[in-house]
Amino acid sequence: MEQLFRTLNDLKPGQRACIRRHRSEGGVRQRLLDLGLMPGVEVTLVRSAPLNDPVELKVEASSISLRRKEAGTIEIHHDE
Fold it and tell me: The domain that contains 22 carries what CATH number?
């Protein structure tokens, strides 16, 4: 039985999580890696835009914005 993992879309503002893996491919995957969203990296959800898209994340010393669709392809480890 495959365990389902949470994604960045499951975080609420102020919550932190560690990236587990990407489910994206090709250019999107490479862009996410270039932004520093690699397995093992801790991210914090800063806020969501008024219509929930995009989301702002803090990754190490940088702030980045992602579409919800992209954030949904990044699985996380998150302790509640």
Answer: 2.30.30.90
E-state strands within the chain = 6-7, 16-22, 42-48, 55-59, 62-66, 74-77
Task: List, in sequence order, every residue forming a beta bridge with 63; answer none if it has no partner.
Answer: 58
Q: What is the pTM of this model?
A: 0.85
DSSP 60: T
Domain of residue 25: give its range. 6-77
Q: Which residues pair with 55 in a beta bridge?
A: 48, 66
Facing residues of 62 across strands? Answer: 59
Query: Distance between CA 8 and CA 18 in Å, rounded?
Result: 10
Average pLDDT of the residues of the chain: 90
Candidates 8, 79, 4; CA nearest to 43 is 8
Q: Which residues pair with 45 in a beta bridge?
A: 57
